[in-house]
Specification:
With 138 residues, the protein is mostly helical. It contains 8 helices and no strands. It is globular.
Length: 138
Amino acid sequence: MNNLCFALIIFLLLPLAANAQRVPIYDYSNKDIRETLIRVEQLEASNNLIEGEKELRRLAENYPEHGGVWYAYGLNLMKQKKADEAITAFKNSLNIVPDIIGPLFYLGITLMNQKQDYEAAIPYLKNHPELQIEEFQR
């Protein structure tokens, strides 16, 4: 199972509180979003990240208040090693639905990889339930 599919399953199970105007990260009831994410998953499976990025950029422009779209966009950008853009996408996701594990974790990883600075990643990685923050403080 690839990262996008895994992330979608996790977020379907998480209880989230979201601003009334903003779409929770796990809401994929919109047909355009759902079908595009499936198409992006297929593109990424065939290593066509650039076409996937174009699709996700379109979604982000059309649905700027959807946290899941920004999260998927950030994952795609991270895979392409476009750290600055991925960081922005993950932060956009977190501005919509704060304290969600996936965007927090990947924001931390992206910051750590970009700056080679574990300290920059700790505030984001410490919120991941499977990680021991002490591991990052050694």
